[in-house]
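Entry type: protein chain
Record version: 2
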Amino acid sequence: MMHDTSMDEIMKKAEVLIEALPYIQRFNRKVIVVKYGGSAMVDEELKHKVIADVVLLKLVGFKPIIVHGGGKEISKWVSKAGMEPKFINGLRVTDAPTMEIAEMVLNRVNKGLVQMIEQLGINGIGISGKDGGLLHVQKRYSEGQDIGYVGEIDKVNPKILYDLLEKDFLPVICPIGFDDQFDTYNINADDAACAIAKALQAEKLAFLTDIEGVYRDFNDKSTLISELELEEAERFIKEGIVGGGMIPKLGNCVEALKKGVSRVHILDGRIPHCLLLEIFTNRGIGTAILNHKEEKFYND
């Protein structure tokens, strides 16, 4: 006869699966854009867990798309080339040699993620914003300062993504685009994920970050907000309630919601399987920001 403890463990696993069922039903065949960055890209063990999570999402019927950064890796290779990484207002100053390194590094990161996806038996495909004219940009300035080949997205052509999703591929996108002259520009990965989610009218946009989520008071960890409505998020930005580093990310979330994305999640990518915990459990672990038209999943 099976030991009681073993039976308890099996029953707990069954409960977890049953709890996930309504979410699987609700988001079946829906697009979810995952912005992958931070520590979860540097730690090899975390990297494998994130990719396993995204593959699981695909296997249970979601249509996931990964948009990745690579800032730490770019800085490492810029330094190896004997140059000093420079930033102005949080944006990398990208001259022509830095742009060349950034593109090489991002493509290397991109194909590494595709390799992991393929190892798990799923068709992954790596593209950049150049492919199929996915991301068109204009030159971005930082408070009037020229920071080189840094692009601001002004147009998204999602046709290539629709085609790849239809053919059952899991797209992995590195944030590089063209301008009118077909010059190559580096793009902030948060901005790229947000623009792609808007263009596809994604059901979900999830940011994997190095913070736990949005706090009412950053110095009091008990004030983590599980669900935040659009209007409240706008108020947080306007009144400066959230810390300075969170303001642009929250701004991206608000912009995505206004353009048709249903829910945006800010997650701590340092927590193993954070994506699954947030999406498939009644009370997630990060902050979900939802359009006012969207119903809450639970009440505080």
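Comment: The chain is about 40% helix and 25% strand.
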